[in-house]
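Today's session is about reading a structure prediction critically. Students often jump straight to the picture, but the first step is always the sequence itself: look for stretches that repeat, for charged clusters, for runs of hydrophobic residues. Only then move on to the predicted structure, which in these notes is written as discrete structure tokens rather than atom positions. Here is the chain we will use throughout the hour.
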Amino acid sequence: MREIYLISIWLLLTTINTFSQSDSLKIDSLKKVLQTQKEDSNKVNTLNELSELLVEDRSASMKYAKDALILSKEINFKNGEGIADYNYAVALAGSSYVGERGSFDELLKYYNSAINILKKNNNNAKLADCYYNIAEGYWSFKQDQAEYLKNILIALRINESINRKQAIARCLQSLAKIYVDTGNDSLAVKYTIQALKTFRENHDSNGIADMSNALGIIYIEKGNDSAGLAQFFYALKIYQLLGKRGVDYRMPFTYGNIGQSYNGQGETFLSNDDKANAYKEILSSSKIL
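Below is the predicted structure for this chain, in token form.
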């Protein structure tokens, strides 16, 4: 039962952000701008931005990335070409997007092309993202831990060199997840704590709560129910303050983890207040499911 919660929370942490109304307005605005732009680097930038914003619409994202790639080559705009290669690979990748998933060899082709160009243009932020996504591909397609770790650590080093805090935290979170998946508790704890520390430095309440929740799960798996409960209640308080409910299910899963922790200590019930809140949150999430 505990392993089910463990898997669920890490799936939540890797879920793509939902499409927002502000994204929709920005897309409409960029499409209007695109209609009057000349065939220059500004148009390449607009095409690339549209590809990034439309990533959940795989066919549209691929189209804009391909258009950016063609135009950037025509006008010899190398940085735009590298970003377009990256965007095309991202759009090609995920099975969660609309359309069929590309092969891993296809993804590597575009990511490696992007890496070669971005290195020469000193676009280190996007370069780090390439290595990060290559790592994710090695795990999701091939379950190749060695290649995953090699590329995540490259991404981490690049992000550290440019002090890109949120990306650093994401790399640490991914390292924690891979060690959870492979059952290495000591390294899972190490990188979860490092990610938690980085999110705190960034004043990122969502990240703090997520990593506290994840750390609680690791402690529970190790049999330390009291330490796990402390982390769950800390995460729960942050989720409550943020109003984290609905489509990402964080509060209901946290209540579930608390209940499972009590059961692990021989308790068969929550307090009356916790029981009522758990029922309310789980009922609310079931309407979305």
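Discussion point for the tutorial: Residues 219 and 227 are 6 Å apart (CA to CA).
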